[in-house]
Amino acid sequence: MNGFKTSIDDFGTGYSTLKMLQRTSLDIVKIDRSFIPLSSDYPEKEKSMNILKGMVNLTRNLGMKVIAEGVEDKTQLEYIREMNCDFVQGYVFDKPLPESEFEKRADAQYYD
User: Fold this and answer.
1) What does the alpha-carbon distance between residue 56 and residue 69 come to, in Å, rounded to a whole number?
2) pTM greater than 0.90
3) What is the DSSP track for 55-110?
4) Euclidean distance between CA atoms 12 and 31, whole angstroms
5) 72 Cβ partners below 8 Å, 6+ apart?
6) pLDDT digits (tens, 9 = 90+) for 3-60
7) What are the structural domains, with CATH classification, of the chain?
8) Pairing of β 65-69 and β 87-89
């Protein structure tokens, strides 16, 4: 459709509910960072892992791509890989950058 993709941000919080998945035609769902299990052990960790896995599976079964946001460290990145998320966003890769700094880094890597 004209090269445009639709997505929903912060899925699972606020107004981005399961009903949104049913009522709208989306290409990408970005799962809110609050659903990404912490790398340290804590009492609800297994529950967190199961919720994340269910969200990823549901989204993928509906034919949408999945972005996990707020991935801070390598252990969390491994969780996300196990869940087969399509994309990852977070400090595990880099901090947010001004556009000019991003372009400078991208150009440097392209020409290296």
Assistant:
1) 12
2) no
3) HHHHHHHTT-EEEEE---SHHHHHHHHHHT-SEEESTTT-----HHHHHHHHHHHH
4) 7
5) 39, 90, 91, 92
6) 788 787 877 777 667 887 888 888 999 999 999 999 899 999 999 999 999 999 999 9
7) 7-111 (3.20.20.450)
8) parallel
